[in-house]
Amino acid sequence: MVRRAVALALTAALSTVGLAACVGDGPGEGSIVVTTNILGDVAQQIVGEEAEIVVLMPDGADPHSFEISARDAATVESAALVVSNGLGLEEGVQNTVDAAADAGVPVLAVGEEVDPLEYQEGSSVGQADPHFWTDPERMREAARLIADQVIEHVPDIDAAAVEARAADYDAELAALDGEMREAFDRIPADRRTLVTNHHVLGYLADRYDFEVLGAVIPSGTTLASPSAADLDSLATAIREAGVPAIFADSSHPDRLAQVLAETAGVDVDVRSLYSESLTADGEAATYLGMMRANTATIATALTP
Q1: Phi/psi at 120 (nearest 5 deg)?
Q2: 3-state secondary structure of 273
């Protein structure tokens, strides 16, 4: 009887410890959870060491198709704040974000708050375009929104420190905008035409006066696929416009872009952009680095 009583007491104690760990000390408990690595970097620049940031999207992943584990889903549900891109970008994560919002977790869907544009080309015409980060001016607004929401919702945050970091980062984003405009202004008007692997540069085109001729995948999502007629039509447009380069995303194989270049039957380069994901290291490990690398690639490819 004594041994049985001890065993029961030990079992009860262990159960209590386990329950406490699940409730109060889970992974990311009270953290800032960010769905994409691009916004994750922006949040990190603003928050610094003031709070824990958990980024769901792995480096080099496709935001349209990446999915999360049950452990990650639990982290979302226990967050102090969830920052998402929104506008349909995170197709494999949206249900988890929606469930967290329904449970009372504060959710900032950034894209909905930065004057979103609609797609002007392809099968997604009329739908909101989620790729707002290609415009650094909209990213300035995104950064301000993130800072405000962090200060409002994250417990025990040092608001003054967050505001100071946000101001510093805003100055860097403003400088990036100036650098991009200076580089793009050197491209002649008759070469300011963009062809991409899918419709991802609409905001960049709108801000810096480019024409989006078309995309290999004529959609706003990489989960779609082109038909032979789509490729043939775009190849004809490339030949007629004298497009010098096709820009493929670094997180996808460029096979279709290469096929399109061959179909066009003209001398067209296929260049890689970091358009939807950061990398673990190198020139695209931060948002600022990614945009500077892309600016250099576009300017070099289109300037004669």
Answers
A1: -110, -10
A2: strand
The C-alpha atoms of residue 304 and residue 294 are separated, in whole angstroms, by: 17
Q: Tell me: the pLDDT tens digits for 246-299?
A: 898 876 656 766 777 777 776 788 899 999 999 999 999 999 999 999 999 999
Q: Which residues pair with 118 in a beta bridge?
A: 128
Beta bridge partners of 211: 193
Which of 215, 254, 25 shows the shortest CA–CA distance to 121?
215
The Cα 81–Cα 292 span in angstroms is 29
Q: How far apart are CA 87 and CA 17, in angstroms?
A: 41
For residue 7, tell me if it sits in a domain: no
Q: How many CB atoms lie within 10 A of CB 1?
A: 5
CA 299/CA 61 separation, integer angstroms: 25
Q: Based on the fold, state whether residues 208 and 151 are members of the same structural domain.
A: no
Give the residue numbers spanning the domain of 255: 187-302
If asked whether residues 155 and 249 sit together in one domain, one would say no
DSSP state of 66: -
- CA dihedral defined by 302, 121, 237, 295, rounded to 10 degrees? 10
The one-character DSSP state at 65 is T
In angstroms, how far is the first alpha carbon of the chain from the final one?
A: 90
69 contacts 46 by C-beta, under 8 angstroms? no
Q: What distance lies between CA 118 and its chain's CA centroid?
A: 17
What is the rounded CA–CA span in Å between residue 161 and residue 50?
8
Q: Which residue has the tokens 């707002």?
A: 132
pLDDT tens digits, one per residue of 207-258: 999 999 988 776 556 555 667 777 778 888 888 888 899 898 876 656 766 7
